[in-house]
Amino acid sequence: MKRQDARERIKNFFEVALGLDASDAVKEAARCLQCKDKPCVKGCPVEIDIPSFIRLLKEGNPKEALEKIKEKNFLPAVCGRVCPQEDQCEAVCVLNKKKMPINIGALERYAADHEKAVHGQWTMDHGQDRVQLTEDRGQKKISKVAVVGSGPAGLTCAAELAILGYGVTLFESLHVPGGVLSYGIPEFRLPKNIVHDEVAYIRSLGVQINTNILVGRTFTFSDLFGDGYKAIFMASGAGLPNFLGIEGENAGGVYSANEFLTRVNLMKAYEFPKSATPVKVGKTVVVIGGGNVALDSARCARRLGADVSLVYRRTENEMPARREEIENAKEEGVNFMFLTAPKKIIVDEKGSVKALVALKMELGAPDASGRPRPIVIKGSEFIIDTDTVVVAIGQSPNPLLAKNTPGLEVTDRSTIKVDKHYATSIKGVFAGGDIITGADTVISAMGAGKKAAHEIDNYIKGSHQDTRHQSPEKDFNR
C-alpha cells in the first residue's frame, strides 16, 4: 500500500497510509482463492463474509462489497485502517503459507473509501432487508435500551440493537462521540472526519447519541431503569492510565499516554498556535512502553518537533505493537531503546523533568504472559537526558462507575465481572469490550458489542437464562 513519504509526514498529521486505487484493489482481490471453509471468516471477531466481499471487489462492485461488509461490521472505514488483520483474518489466510496473505484490511478500507469518494458520505444502506426492518418498526420500538460509552463496543451494540427494533440511547461522557477512536488514535492513522461519518451512519439507524453525560454521576443505573430503559450495556472502555510508581513520576513534563493523546487528537494541540490547549513537548521526549499506544505517542511527539526515544524493557520481537506501526515509527526517526527499563525521573529545581534514569535488561524465562521475563543487569544504570516523559504502559477501566454502583462486581483488575451472556451481577445490566477484558483491539470490542446486543435482545424477550452466578463459558474475567 502506498504511504506518505516519511520526510514529509513528520511535518504534518495527514494520513500516512494512502490506500489502494481501483486497479490495485481488483488485482489484490483476484488473488483470493475463495476457500470453501472460509478460515478468514472464523478469524474475524465480527464474522464478516470476507470471501464474498472480496469477490464483489474483484467483479468491480465496491458498493455491493461495502453492503456485504456492513451486514456484520458497522465501522468498515475504521476497521480497514486500525484493525490488526495480520493477527486475525489474515493470520489464517491459506496464502499465509507463502507469506503473502490477502491484504484484507486494505480491501475493506477501499470498499468504504470508494463510497465516500463517489457520494461524499458513507452509504446509509445496510442491506435493504435490515433497513426495512428498522423502518417498519420506526414508530413502535420493542423497548428502550441504554448504552454507556460510544467507543467501538458501544457503537456496535447500539447499532445492532437499533436494527433489531429497539429504541437506543447512547450516553457519552466526552463532548464528541467515538471513544478511543476520537481521543486515542492519532489523525495520521485514523482521520477524525472518518470517525464522524461512521458515527453519523450509526445515528442514521435510529440511535440517539447524548454527549457530556457521565453515567454514574449525571445519571445512575437506577435513574435509567426508572426512566423506562429495560436494559443497560456498559461499554465505557479502559481509559484509566497505568503508571510506573517510580520516583519523580509526578514532575512537570510527565504525561500519561491518555492525557498526551487526548490533548493532541481530541483537542488538536498540534494546531498550535490556533489550538486553545497546546501541549508542551520540549526538545526531547522519552516514551515508555511497547504497544500501539506507545507508538502513537512517539509518532505524535515527532510531529510536534521533538527528538523521540522509545524505551521498552524487552526486544522488538516481544513488542505487542503492530509491525506496520513499528516500521512507520522507524522511518519517522523514532529511536528504539530495547532491553531498557525506567528506574526514576530526575527533576530540576523548578519541578520539571530533567532526565530519566534507566537500567539495561536481559531476557529470562517466560512469565505469565508467555513472553521472556526482563531481568535487570547489575550495575547497568545510565541516564537519558529528556524534557518530557510519556508513560504508555497500559490502561484499566475507570473505577468511578463501579464505585458509584452498589452491587456491581469487579475483578481485582477493576474490570467488570460478566457471565457467558455478558450479564453483570446486576439484573438487566450487561457489559462488553475493554471494560471486561482490559485494553484490547477495536475489532474485539466490536465483536463483544455485537454479541452482547443479541444477549440483551434475548433477555428482554424472556429467553435469556439467568446464569450470572454460574461459571462463564468464556473467561472474560481473567
Number of helices: 18
| Main β-sheet, spatial strand arrangement | 5-4-3-6-18
Overall morphology: globular
Query: CATH first level of the largest domain: which class?
Result: Alpha Beta
If classified by CATH, what would the architecture of the largest domain be?
3-Layer(bba) Sandwich
Radius of gyration over all CA atoms, rounded = 23 Å
CATH topology name of the largest domain, in short, is: FAD/NAD(P)-binding domain
Distance between the termini: 37 Å
Q: Kindly report the name of the CATH homologous superfamily of the largest domain.
A: FAD/NAD(P)-binding domain
Supply the number of structural domains.
3
Q: List the uncertain runs.
A: 122-138, 467-473
Helix content: 25-40%
Largest sheet: 5 strands, parallel
**What is the number of beta strands?**
18
Taking all residues together, what is the mean pLDDT?
90
Approximately what portion of the residues adopt beta-strand conformation?
A: 15-25%
